[in-house]
Amino acid sequence: MLRESESVLHSWCVPADWNAATVVGGSGAWLQLDSGRRILDMSSLAECCNLGHQHPAVVAAIRAQADRMCYVTSAWGAQPRTELAEAIIEKSGFVGGRVFFTLGGADANENAVKLARAASGRTQGKIVTRDRSYHGATYACMSLSGDSRTRAQANDAAFGVLRVPPPYAYRCPFGEMDPDRCGERAADAVGSVIDAAGTGAVAAVLMEPDAGTNGIIAPDTYWPALRRATRDRGVYLVADEVMSGFGRCGEWFAWQRYGEAGRPDLMTLAKGLTNASVPLGAVVLSAEVYARIAHTMLHTGLTYCGHPLACAAGVAAVRAYEDEKLIERSRRLGAALLKELRAMQARHPVIGDVRGGHGLFAVIELVADRTTREPLAPWAQQPPALSNLLKAAMAESVSFGARGNLLILAPPLVIAEAELVDALALLDRLLARFFPAAA
Ligand SMILES: Cc1ncc(COP(=O)(O)O)c(C=O)c1O
Known about the structure:
It is built from 12 helices and 16 strands. The chain folds into 2 domains: about 5-55 and about 325-439, Aspartate Aminotransferase, domain 1; about 60-325, Type I PLP-dependent aspartate aminotransferase-like (Major domain) (Aspartate Aminotransferase, domain 2, 3-Layer(aba) Sandwich), CATH 3.40.640.10. The longest helix has 22 residues, at about 325-345. About 50% of the residues are buried. By secondary structure, the protein is an alpha/beta fold. A hairpin with a 5-residue loop joins strand 11 (about 350-355) and strand 12 (about 360-370). About 35% of the residues lie in helices and about 15% in strands. The protein has helices spanning about 45, 55-70, 80-90, 105-120, 140-145, 180-195, 220-230, 285-295, 310-325, 325-345, 385-395, 415-435, and strands spanning about 25, 30-35, 40, 100, 125-130, 160-165, 200-205, 235-240, 265-270, 280-285, 350-355, 360-370, 375, 400, 400-405, 405-410. The structure holds pyridoxal-5'-phosphate.
Protein backbone atom coordinates (compact mmCIF):
# COMPACT_ATOMS: atom_id res chain seq x y z
CA MET A 1 0.00 0.00 0.00
CA LEU A 2 1.26 3.51 -0.86
CA ARG A 3 2.14 5.60 2.17
CA GLU A 4 0.90 9.17 1.87
CA SER A 5 3.63 10.54 4.11
CA GLU A 6 6.22 9.29 1.60
CA SER A 7 4.78 11.20 -1.35
CA VAL A 8 2.62 14.15 -0.23
CA LEU A 9 3.77 17.40 1.38
CA HIS A 10 0.94 18.39 3.75
CA SER A 11 -0.04 21.86 4.93
CA TRP A 12 0.23 23.34 8.44
CA CYS A 13 2.45 20.61 9.88
CA VAL A 14 6.04 19.56 10.36
CA PRO A 15 6.20 17.46 7.19
CA ALA A 16 8.37 14.66 8.61
CA ASP A 17 5.97 14.30 11.57
CA TRP A 18 2.80 13.99 9.50
CA ASN A 19 1.08 10.76 10.37
CA ALA A 20 -2.67 10.89 9.98
CA ALA A 21 -5.26 8.24 9.26
CA THR A 22 -6.79 8.02 5.80
CA VAL A 23 -10.41 9.04 5.34
CA VAL A 24 -12.23 6.94 2.77
CA GLY A 25 -15.81 8.03 3.26
CA GLY A 26 -18.28 9.83 5.44
CA SER A 27 -21.89 10.45 6.23
CA GLY A 28 -23.55 13.16 8.32
CA ALA A 29 -21.15 14.20 11.08
CA TRP A 30 -19.12 11.00 10.73
CA LEU A 31 -15.88 10.23 8.90
CA GLN A 32 -15.03 6.71 7.78
CA LEU A 33 -11.38 5.65 8.04
CA ASP A 34 -9.63 3.01 5.94
CA SER A 35 -9.20 0.98 9.12
CA GLY A 36 -12.97 0.65 9.28
CA ARG A 37 -13.26 3.01 12.29
CA ARG A 38 -15.80 5.82 12.33
CA ILE A 39 -14.89 9.22 13.82
CA LEU A 40 -17.35 11.89 14.95
CA ASP A 41 -16.14 15.13 13.37
CA MET A 42 -16.52 18.05 15.79
CA SER A 43 -14.82 20.56 13.49
CA SER A 44 -16.48 19.91 10.09
CA LEU A 45 -12.95 19.04 8.87
CA ALA A 46 -11.68 22.62 8.40
CA GLU A 47 -14.94 24.30 9.59
CA CYS A 48 -16.17 23.85 6.05
CA CYS A 49 -18.41 20.75 5.75
CA ASN A 50 -21.39 22.51 7.31
CA LEU A 51 -23.82 20.07 5.64
CA GLY A 52 -21.92 17.05 6.89
CA HIS A 53 -19.97 14.62 4.76
CA GLN A 54 -21.04 13.35 1.36
CA HIS A 55 -24.33 15.26 1.37
CA PRO A 56 -26.33 13.24 -1.19
CA ALA A 57 -27.90 16.21 -2.98
CA VAL A 58 -24.53 17.93 -3.40
CA VAL A 59 -22.88 14.75 -4.66
CA ALA A 60 -25.75 14.20 -7.11
CA ALA A 61 -25.49 17.78 -8.40
CA ILE A 62 -21.76 17.41 -9.08
CA ARG A 63 -22.39 14.13 -10.87
CA ALA A 64 -25.20 15.60 -13.00
CA GLN A 65 -23.12 18.65 -13.96
CA ALA A 66 -20.14 16.42 -14.82
CA ASP A 67 -22.39 14.56 -17.25
CA ARG A 68 -23.51 17.83 -18.87
CA MET A 69 -20.38 20.04 -19.00
CA CYS A 70 -17.37 19.98 -16.70
CA TYR A 71 -15.68 23.24 -17.56
CA VAL A 72 -16.52 26.59 -19.15
CA THR A 73 -14.23 29.66 -18.96
CA SER A 74 -15.37 33.05 -17.77
CA ALA A 75 -15.39 34.15 -21.41
CA TRP A 76 -18.61 32.13 -21.80
CA GLY A 77 -21.74 31.81 -19.73
CA ALA A 78 -22.37 28.75 -17.60
CA GLN A 79 -25.79 27.97 -16.19
CA PRO A 80 -24.89 26.84 -12.63
CA ARG A 81 -22.70 29.94 -12.26
CA THR A 82 -25.69 32.21 -12.89
CA GLU A 83 -27.90 30.16 -10.59
CA LEU A 84 -25.40 30.28 -7.74
CA ALA A 85 -24.72 34.01 -8.11
CA GLU A 86 -28.47 34.68 -8.05
CA ALA A 87 -28.89 32.53 -4.94
CA ILE A 88 -26.05 34.33 -3.12
CA ILE A 89 -27.46 37.73 -4.06
CA GLU A 90 -30.90 36.65 -2.86
CA LYS A 91 -29.65 35.31 0.49
CA SER A 92 -27.44 38.33 1.15
CA GLY A 93 -29.80 40.99 -0.17
CA PHE A 94 -27.02 42.52 -2.31
CA VAL A 95 -29.64 43.53 -4.87
CA GLY A 96 -28.05 44.88 -8.04
CA GLY A 97 -24.64 43.62 -6.89
CA ARG A 98 -22.40 41.03 -8.53
CA VAL A 99 -20.52 37.87 -7.58
CA PHE A 100 -16.93 37.28 -8.66
CA PHE A 101 -16.01 33.60 -8.27
CA THR A 102 -12.59 32.39 -7.14
CA LEU A 103 -11.17 29.03 -6.06
CA GLY A 104 -11.09 29.48 -2.30
CA GLY A 105 -10.89 31.91 0.57
CA ALA A 106 -7.42 33.40 0.12
CA ASP A 107 -7.87 34.34 -3.52
CA ALA A 108 -11.35 35.67 -2.69
CA ASN A 109 -9.73 38.04 -0.18
CA GLU A 110 -6.98 39.04 -2.61
CA ASN A 111 -9.56 39.81 -5.28
CA ALA A 112 -11.77 41.65 -2.79
CA VAL A 113 -8.80 43.92 -2.08
CA LYS A 114 -8.23 44.46 -5.81
CA LEU A 115 -11.91 45.20 -6.42
CA ALA A 116 -12.22 47.52 -3.42
CA ARG A 117 -9.13 49.41 -4.56
CA ALA A 118 -10.47 49.65 -8.11
CA ALA A 119 -13.94 50.80 -6.99
CA SER A 120 -12.57 53.37 -4.55
CA GLY A 121 -10.22 54.79 -7.17
CA ARG A 122 -7.44 54.33 -4.59
CA THR A 123 -5.30 51.96 -6.61
CA GLN A 124 -2.58 51.87 -3.96
CA GLY A 125 -5.05 52.43 -1.11
CA LYS A 126 -4.19 50.94 2.27
CA ILE A 127 -6.11 48.01 3.71
CA VAL A 128 -6.78 47.92 7.45
CA THR A 129 -6.82 44.47 9.07
CA ARG A 130 -6.39 43.25 12.62
CA ASP A 131 -4.08 41.15 14.75
CA ARG A 132 -5.21 37.59 15.53
CA SER A 133 -7.08 37.34 12.21
CA TYR A 134 -6.78 34.80 9.40
CA HIS A 135 -7.50 35.58 5.77
CA GLY A 136 -5.44 32.90 3.97
CA ALA A 137 -1.85 31.84 3.37
CA THR A 138 -0.90 33.38 0.02
CA TYR A 139 1.69 36.17 0.14
CA ALA A 140 -0.84 39.01 0.20
CA CYS A 141 -3.04 37.13 2.67
CA MET A 142 -0.15 36.51 5.04
CA SER A 143 0.14 40.28 5.29
CA LEU A 144 -3.60 40.78 5.52
CA SER A 145 -3.74 38.16 8.30
CA GLY A 146 -2.62 38.77 11.84
CA ASP A 147 -1.71 35.14 12.31
CA SER A 148 1.26 34.13 14.44
CA ARG A 149 2.17 31.24 12.11
CA THR A 150 2.84 33.44 9.10
CA ARG A 151 3.74 36.84 10.62
CA ALA A 152 7.47 36.32 10.01
CA GLN A 153 6.87 35.94 6.28
CA ALA A 154 4.43 38.85 6.04
CA ASN A 155 5.36 42.19 4.54
CA ASP A 156 2.68 44.68 5.53
CA ALA A 157 4.37 47.64 3.87
CA ALA A 158 4.67 45.84 0.51
CA PHE A 159 1.00 44.96 0.50
CA GLY A 160 -0.18 48.29 1.93
CA VAL A 161 -1.60 46.80 5.12
CA LEU A 162 -2.26 48.78 8.30
CA ARG A 163 -2.87 46.76 11.44
CA VAL A 164 -5.14 47.30 14.46
CA PRO A 165 -5.64 45.38 17.73
CA PRO A 166 -8.42 42.78 17.80
CA PRO A 167 -11.79 42.98 19.63
CA TYR A 168 -10.58 40.30 22.05
CA ALA A 169 -12.81 41.01 25.03
CA TYR A 170 -11.32 38.32 27.32
CA ARG A 171 -7.87 39.92 26.99
CA CYS A 172 -8.91 43.36 25.86
CA PRO A 173 -5.97 45.16 24.20
CA PHE A 174 -7.51 48.45 25.36
CA GLY A 175 -7.68 47.35 29.00
CA GLU A 176 -11.47 47.44 29.09
CA MET A 177 -13.21 44.95 31.41
CA ASP A 178 -16.62 45.43 29.82
CA PRO A 179 -16.83 43.39 26.58
CA ASP A 180 -19.17 45.82 24.86
CA ARG A 181 -16.83 48.69 25.60
CA CYS A 182 -13.90 46.62 24.31
CA GLY A 183 -15.79 46.10 21.03
CA GLU A 184 -16.43 49.82 20.70
CA ARG A 185 -12.81 50.70 21.46
CA ALA A 186 -11.61 48.21 18.82
CA ALA A 187 -13.89 49.84 16.23
CA ASP A 188 -12.71 53.31 17.34
CA ALA A 189 -9.11 52.15 16.80
CA VAL A 190 -9.94 51.39 13.17
CA GLY A 191 -11.35 54.90 12.77
CA SER A 192 -8.20 56.39 14.30
CA VAL A 193 -5.93 54.42 11.94
CA ILE A 194 -7.94 55.60 8.93
CA ASP A 195 -7.79 59.19 10.16
CA ALA A 196 -4.06 59.00 10.84
CA ALA A 197 -3.39 57.62 7.34
CA GLY A 198 -4.92 60.79 5.88
CA THR A 199 -7.81 61.60 3.57
CA GLY A 200 -8.18 59.12 0.71
CA ALA A 201 -5.30 56.92 1.89
CA VAL A 202 -7.32 53.87 2.97
CA ALA A 203 -9.32 51.85 0.44
CA ALA A 204 -10.89 49.25 2.70
CA VAL A 205 -11.10 47.56 6.06
CA LEU A 206 -11.07 43.74 5.89
CA MET A 207 -12.28 41.83 8.96
CA GLU A 208 -13.92 38.60 10.08
CA PRO A 209 -17.35 39.46 11.52
CA ASP A 210 -17.49 36.37 13.77
CA ALA A 211 -16.02 32.84 13.72
CA GLY A 212 -12.34 32.56 12.87
CA THR A 213 -9.27 30.37 13.10
CA ASN A 214 -7.79 32.55 15.84
CA GLY A 215 -10.78 31.99 18.11
CA ILE A 216 -11.76 35.59 18.74
CA ILE A 217 -15.47 36.25 18.68
CA ALA A 218 -16.11 39.98 18.80
CA PRO A 219 -18.63 41.50 21.22
CA ASP A 220 -21.90 42.50 19.54
CA THR A 221 -21.00 46.19 19.73
CA TYR A 222 -18.04 45.74 17.41
CA TRP A 223 -19.36 45.10 13.90
CA PRO A 224 -22.07 47.82 13.79
CA ALA A 225 -19.56 50.34 15.23
CA LEU A 226 -17.02 49.27 12.61
CA ARG A 227 -19.65 49.75 9.92
CA ARG A 228 -20.37 53.27 11.17
CA ALA A 229 -16.66 54.13 11.47
CA THR A 230 -15.94 53.01 7.90
CA ARG A 231 -19.06 54.51 6.33
CA ASP A 232 -18.50 57.88 8.03
CA ARG A 233 -15.01 57.98 6.52
CA GLY A 234 -15.95 56.77 3.02
CA VAL A 235 -13.94 53.57 3.37
CA TYR A 236 -15.22 50.19 2.17
CA LEU A 237 -15.89 47.45 4.69
CA VAL A 238 -15.10 43.92 3.49
CA ALA A 239 -16.54 41.07 5.58
CA ASP A 240 -14.48 37.90 5.41
CA GLU A 241 -17.29 35.35 5.74
CA VAL A 242 -15.16 32.43 4.57
CA MET A 243 -15.63 30.61 7.88
CA SER A 244 -18.56 32.47 9.41
CA GLY A 245 -20.90 32.16 6.41
CA PHE A 246 -23.46 29.55 5.46
CA GLY A 247 -25.06 29.01 8.83
CA ARG A 248 -21.89 28.62 10.89
CA CYS A 249 -22.84 31.64 12.97
CA GLY A 250 -26.61 31.21 12.90
CA GLU A 251 -27.24 33.34 9.81
CA TRP A 252 -26.55 32.91 6.13
CA PHE A 253 -23.81 35.48 6.68
CA ALA A 254 -22.70 36.53 10.17
CA TRP A 255 -23.13 40.28 9.57
CA GLN A 256 -26.86 39.70 9.06
CA ARG A 257 -27.26 39.40 12.83
CA TYR A 258 -27.10 43.22 12.85
CA GLY A 259 -29.47 43.70 9.90
CA GLU A 260 -28.77 46.65 7.62
CA ALA A 261 -26.60 48.20 10.37
CA GLY A 262 -24.07 45.45 9.68
CA ARG A 263 -24.16 45.29 5.88
CA PRO A 264 -20.64 45.42 4.41
CA ASP A 265 -19.74 46.80 0.97
CA LEU A 266 -18.13 43.53 -0.09
CA MET A 267 -17.96 40.07 1.39
CA THR A 268 -15.84 37.02 0.69
CA LEU A 269 -17.04 33.42 0.80
CA ALA A 270 -15.63 29.88 0.45
CA LYS A 271 -15.79 26.73 2.64
CA GLY A 272 -19.54 26.18 3.30
CA LEU A 273 -20.37 27.69 -0.10
CA THR A 274 -20.06 24.23 -1.69
CA ASN A 275 -19.82 22.34 1.60
CA ALA A 276 -16.15 22.08 0.54
CA SER A 277 -17.16 19.37 -1.92
CA VAL A 278 -15.44 21.21 -4.80
CA PRO A 279 -13.08 24.20 -4.24
CA LEU A 280 -14.88 27.52 -4.69
CA GLY A 281 -14.65 31.03 -3.31
CA ALA A 282 -16.49 34.23 -4.10
CA VAL A 283 -16.37 37.99 -3.71
CA VAL A 284 -19.79 39.59 -3.44
CA LEU A 285 -19.99 43.27 -4.40
CA SER A 286 -22.76 45.66 -3.43
CA ALA A 287 -24.62 47.45 -6.23
CA GLU A 288 -22.75 50.65 -5.37
CA VAL A 289 -19.33 48.99 -5.57
CA TYR A 290 -20.28 47.23 -8.80
CA ALA A 291 -21.50 50.50 -10.38
CA ARG A 292 -18.05 52.02 -9.84
CA ILE A 293 -16.22 49.30 -11.78
CA ALA A 294 -18.90 48.32 -14.27
CA HIS A 295 -17.44 50.31 -17.17
CA THR A 296 -13.72 49.84 -16.61
CA MET A 297 -11.50 46.95 -17.66
CA LEU A 298 -11.17 44.37 -14.90
CA HIS A 299 -7.57 43.22 -14.67
CA THR A 300 -8.07 40.03 -12.71
CA GLY A 301 -9.07 36.45 -13.33
CA LEU A 302 -8.43 32.79 -12.71
CA THR A 303 -8.68 29.96 -15.23
CA TYR A 304 -11.22 28.22 -13.02
CA CYS A 305 -13.35 31.27 -12.06
CA GLY A 306 -16.90 30.01 -11.51
CA HIS A 307 -16.09 26.41 -12.37
CA PRO A 308 -19.37 24.70 -13.31
CA LEU A 309 -18.81 21.63 -11.14
CA ALA A 310 -18.18 23.84 -8.11
CA CYS A 311 -21.11 26.14 -8.89
CA ALA A 312 -23.47 23.19 -9.33
CA ALA A 313 -22.32 21.95 -5.92
CA GLY A 314 -22.93 25.45 -4.52
CA VAL A 315 -26.48 25.61 -5.90
CA ALA A 316 -27.28 22.24 -4.31
CA ALA A 317 -25.63 23.27 -1.04
CA VAL A 318 -27.65 26.49 -0.78
CA ARG A 319 -30.82 24.49 -1.44
CA ALA A 320 -29.87 21.98 1.26
CA TYR A 321 -29.22 24.70 3.90
CA GLU A 322 -32.66 26.05 3.07
CA ASP A 323 -34.64 22.79 2.73
CA GLU A 324 -33.18 21.34 5.93
CA LYS A 325 -33.60 24.65 7.81
CA LEU A 326 -29.97 24.45 8.87
CA ILE A 327 -29.49 28.14 9.54
CA GLU A 328 -32.20 28.03 12.21
CA ARG A 329 -30.86 24.67 13.46
CA SER A 330 -27.38 26.12 13.84
CA ARG A 331 -28.79 28.98 15.92
CA ARG A 332 -30.76 26.60 18.16
CA LEU A 333 -27.98 24.05 18.65
CA GLY A 334 -25.43 26.85 19.06
CA ALA A 335 -27.40 28.27 22.00
CA ALA A 336 -27.62 24.80 23.58
CA LEU A 337 -23.89 24.25 22.99
CA LEU A 338 -22.98 27.52 24.69
CA LYS A 339 -25.20 26.67 27.69
CA GLU A 340 -23.54 23.27 28.10
CA LEU A 341 -20.04 24.75 27.79
CA ARG A 342 -20.84 27.38 30.43
CA ALA A 343 -21.99 24.57 32.74
CA MET A 344 -18.68 22.81 32.03
CA GLN A 345 -16.81 26.00 32.84
CA ALA A 346 -18.36 25.92 36.31
CA ARG A 347 -16.93 22.42 36.83
CA HIS A 348 -13.47 22.99 35.31
CA PRO A 349 -11.41 25.99 36.46
CA VAL A 350 -9.06 25.35 33.52
CA ILE A 351 -11.76 26.86 31.31
CA GLY A 352 -11.07 30.57 31.47
CA ASP A 353 -13.51 31.74 28.83
CA VAL A 354 -16.32 30.34 26.72
CA ARG A 355 -17.29 32.25 23.58
CA GLY A 356 -19.89 31.71 20.87
CA GLY A 357 -23.58 31.06 20.94
CA HIS A 358 -24.58 32.65 17.63
CA GLY A 359 -24.52 29.32 15.82
CA LEU A 360 -22.60 26.05 15.91
CA PHE A 361 -19.25 27.67 16.58
CA ALA A 362 -17.87 27.92 20.09
CA VAL A 363 -14.46 28.48 21.60
CA ILE A 364 -13.13 27.31 24.97
CA GLU A 365 -10.03 29.15 26.16
CA LEU A 366 -7.92 27.21 28.66
CA VAL A 367 -5.96 29.06 31.35
CA ALA A 368 -3.39 28.24 34.02
CA ASP A 369 -5.18 30.54 36.46
CA ARG A 370 -8.71 31.74 36.03
CA THR A 371 -8.28 34.73 38.34
CA THR A 372 -5.22 36.17 36.63
CA ARG A 373 -6.22 34.76 33.19
CA GLU A 374 -2.66 33.50 32.77
CA PRO A 375 -2.63 31.47 29.54
CA LEU A 376 -1.98 27.73 29.81
CA ALA A 377 0.78 28.15 27.21
CA PRO A 378 2.11 31.17 25.28
CA TRP A 379 0.03 31.80 22.15
CA ALA A 380 -0.08 29.80 19.87
CA GLN A 381 1.69 26.83 21.49
CA GLN A 382 -0.46 23.85 22.31
CA PRO A 383 -0.26 22.81 25.98
CA PRO A 384 0.87 19.14 26.19
CA ALA A 385 -2.17 18.20 28.32
CA LEU A 386 -4.45 19.52 25.58
CA SER A 387 -2.57 17.48 22.94
CA ASN A 388 -3.07 14.42 25.15
CA LEU A 389 -6.75 15.22 25.54
CA LEU A 390 -7.14 15.40 21.76
CA LYS A 391 -5.40 12.03 21.33
CA ALA A 392 -7.61 10.44 24.00
CA ALA A 393 -10.71 11.86 22.27
CA MET A 394 -9.58 10.31 18.99
CA ALA A 395 -9.10 6.98 20.75
CA GLU A 396 -12.77 7.32 21.71
CA SER A 397 -13.68 8.16 18.09
CA VAL A 398 -14.24 11.92 18.41
CA SER A 399 -12.15 14.52 16.60
CA PHE A 400 -12.04 17.99 18.24
CA GLY A 401 -10.46 21.06 16.66
CA ALA A 402 -7.86 23.01 18.66
CA ARG A 403 -5.50 25.95 18.24
CA GLY A 404 -3.01 26.95 20.94
CA ASN A 405 -4.94 27.14 24.21
CA LEU A 406 -8.25 27.00 22.40
CA LEU A 407 -10.67 24.18 21.77
CA ILE A 408 -12.80 25.10 18.79
CA LEU A 409 -16.17 23.38 18.47
CA ALA A 410 -17.71 23.61 15.01
CA PRO A 411 -19.50 20.36 14.13
CA PRO A 412 -21.53 19.96 10.95
CA LEU A 413 -24.90 21.71 11.28
CA VAL A 414 -26.58 18.34 10.66
CA ILE A 415 -25.06 16.69 13.74
CA ALA A 416 -27.71 14.77 15.68
CA GLU A 417 -28.49 16.26 19.09
CA ALA A 418 -27.59 12.96 20.77
CA GLU A 419 -24.20 12.96 19.00
CA LEU A 420 -23.51 16.49 20.23
CA VAL A 421 -24.51 15.53 23.78
CA ASP A 422 -22.21 12.46 23.67
CA ALA A 423 -19.26 14.47 22.34
CA LEU A 424 -19.66 17.09 25.08
CA ALA A 425 -19.97 14.39 27.76
CA LEU A 426 -16.68 12.94 26.49
CA LEU A 427 -15.05 16.37 26.57
CA ASP A 428 -16.28 16.86 30.14
CA ARG A 429 -14.73 13.53 31.21
CA LEU A 430 -11.46 14.25 29.41
CA LEU A 431 -11.13 17.72 30.93
CA ALA A 432 -11.43 16.11 34.37
CA ARG A 433 -8.83 13.50 33.41
CA PHE A 434 -6.22 15.75 31.80
CA PHE A 435 -6.66 18.77 34.05
CA PRO A 436 -7.20 16.98 37.38
CA ALA A 437 -6.44 20.00 39.54
CA ALA A 438 -9.44 21.50 37.87
CA ALA A 439 -11.82 18.58 38.47
C1 LIG B 1 -11.87 33.62 7.72
C2 LIG B 1 -11.03 32.93 6.70
N1 LIG B 1 -10.64 33.60 5.61
C3 LIG B 1 -9.90 33.03 4.65
C4 LIG B 1 -9.50 31.72 4.77
C5 LIG B 1 -8.64 31.12 3.69
O1 LIG B 1 -9.38 30.25 2.93
P1 LIG B 1 -8.63 29.18 1.98
O2 LIG B 1 -7.96 28.21 2.89
O3 LIG B 1 -9.77 28.58 1.18
O4 LIG B 1 -7.67 29.93 1.14
C6 LIG B 1 -9.88 30.97 5.88
C7 LIG B 1 -9.46 29.57 6.02
O5 LIG B 1 -9.53 28.98 7.07
C8 LIG B 1 -10.67 31.59 6.88
O6 LIG B 1 -11.05 30.95 7.97
